[in-house]
Amino acid sequence: MTLALYARKKQWPLEAVEVRLRHSKIHAADCDECETREGKLDRIDTEIVLTGRLDGDQRVRLLQIAQMCPVHRTLTSEIHIQSRLV
Hints:
Elements (H helix, E strand, L loop, with lengths): L1 H9 L3 E14 L12 E13 L3 H11 L3 H7 L10
Antiparallel strand pairs: 1-2
């Protein structure tokens, strides 16, 4: 949704966005860019398919925007979940 809104604002020819996600667990020691060094971590591999006559610069910018969207930022931040029965 964020990409579609951004492209519409810029009047770019984005026709559709498809996001494919794959979730797995990895050993923290196998993740060079991760702060956590022990145990296992959740890993989400994301593929973004952009449909439309976009040039290379527009595609790169849309990937940057995808990495700043609210969902991406939530998933990459520290999360504290509190549950309660009602």
